[in-house]
Specification:
single chain; alpha+beta; Peroxisomal Thiolase, Chain A, domain 1; 9-stranded mixed beta sheet; 4-stranded mixed beta sheet; 12 helices; globular
């Protein structure tokens, strides 16, 4: 990938998200009012729709420094100011300083808005939805998924699944929904892929990361992360079909990206087993919680910086994508017929350098996957990024297209799968 093509993918003139014509602007009546923007996308040929967006005050790469200095009460040195445009980001959104109660009200209201909008984008009434799977890195309350579903008008008996695997949360949730052979589906007491096959399901990531990083004094985190949400509506086995996939974890023993667990987890590593704990959090609520290397000083987030993230995610990330690609090639070979190619890879937008380096390493191994950069105006929005990227690509997809989804996040957790678009 040349410098020229990268620059073309990252135009400095990209308009702020709230000013884009298809964005529905609302104000959440919390404190003095919190602005939010939601865009809906529908591909009727596939039978898939969804909603994505963000909330809070937008900060571009220039005004961001003032915000960070105000939050931390210190002055950013030249060495502390991140050069964010080459990392793929020109803006991100942060909520104002709020009380704990106001933050709960805000994020529950926002979550319900996205669930309703995603359901309507699919032509569904909320009460028709049979399952809600939401990835959230640091939930504001433990029963966040249940609360937003209730406020959105989704039935009490619908299954709710909260997935806490950092930035891998939404792809991990989708993998559970589609792959009945996943270990987590064997130990959860409910095999979600079997239980929700053929039913109407909302799956995505909703991340109030500005609230999370406001609890931290990590200046890199304050500049890199922002609020965002992306939720899609699918009918497993019909509008989206599982082909191949793999989940993988490597505990981040060095704490390169250390994150406080704002959700229940024993904090114990299981010898020879998964660091993911699955529990029944209520009659119809399942919690999937991944062990994190937590900051030693009790901080919310501690990160080693952009190059540290590259070292953390690229090497293993390339391996997992390569393994799934080989599984896909084997499937195509066994099925026979016309050669099928992966139409696009939807990769977590941790930062542009990570994605470009993964792409380069894969190309060196003869694996050529289109990996478009689709988020500029949000910053790193963790579990929301894959679903926002998918929805931005959705209008270009056709029935029968094969799509690779690549999720990875702190912990460290990876979920990579290839799906076929229905219709």
């Amino acid at each position: 990938m040349t410098d020229k093509s990268t620059a073309e993918e990252m135009p400095e003139g990209t308009s702020p998200f709230f000013e884009q014509p298809q964005v529905n602007l609302i104000e959440i009546p919390i404190a003095h009012g919190v602005p939010a923007g939601i865009q809906t996308v529908t591909n009727e040929r596939l039978g898939i729709g969804g909603a994505y967006g963000t909330w809070g005050q937008p900060y571009d790469n220039i005004t961001l420094a003032d915000m960070v200095e105000m939050r931390t009460g210190t002055t950013l040195s030249e060495g502390e100011r991140m050069d964010l445009a080459p990392l793929g980001f020109i803006a991100r959104h942060h909520q104002p300083a709020l009380t704990r109660e106001e933050s709960v009200d805000l994020e529950v209201a926002i979550g319900a808005q996205f669930l309703r909008a995603a359901a309507h984008a699919c032509g569904w009434h909320p009460e028709e939805v049979d399952g809600v799977l939401i990835g959230t890195s640091g939930p504001i309350v433990e029963d966040y998924t249940v609360r937003i579903a209730q406020l959105a008008g989704i039935r009490e008996d619908a299954l709710k699944v909260s997935v806490h695997k950092a930035c891998d949360g939404s792809v991990g949730a989708l993998h559970m929904l589609l792959n009945e052979n996943l270990e987590v589906n064997q130990i959860s007491g409910i095999n979600l892929a079997q239980e929700l096959a053929g039913k109407k399901v909302l799956v995505g990531g909703i991340e109030g990361l500005s609230r999370l990083v406001q609890l931290s004094r990590d200046k890199n985190a304050l500049q890199l992360f922002g609020n965002g949400a992306g939720v899609i509506g699918v009918i497993p086995g019909e509008s989206m079909k599982f082909l191949v996939g793999k989940t993988h974890e490597v505990f981040d023993a060095e704490g390169v990206l250390a994150v406080h667990m704002f959700y229940p987890h024993s904090g114990l590593r299981k010898d020879g087993g998964s660091n993911v704990e699955v529990s029944r959090a209520g009659t119809n609520h399942i919690r999937v919680a991944g062990l994190m290397h937590e900051p030693d000083d009790g901080d919310a987030v501690k990160m080693a910086g952009p190059m540290g993230m590259v070292k953390l995610f690229v090497r293993t990330g390339v391996q997992v994508v390569r393994d799934v690609y080989e599984m896909y090639q084997d499937l195509v070979s066994r099925v026979g017929g016309i050669e099928k190619k992966i139409a696009v890879a939807i990769v977590h937008h941790a930062n542009l350098k990570i994605n470009r380096l993964k792409e380069k390493h894969l190309q060196n191994e003869g694996i050529h996957l289109p990996m478009p950069w689709l988020l500029s105006e949000f910053g790193n929005v963790s579990a929301a990024s894959n679903m926002i990227a998918f929805l931005r690509q959705l209008p270009r997809l056709n029935p029968g297209d094969h799509v690779l989804l690549d999720g990875f996040g702190a912990g460290t957790y990876y979920d990579v799968l290839v799906v076929s678009m229905g219709g």
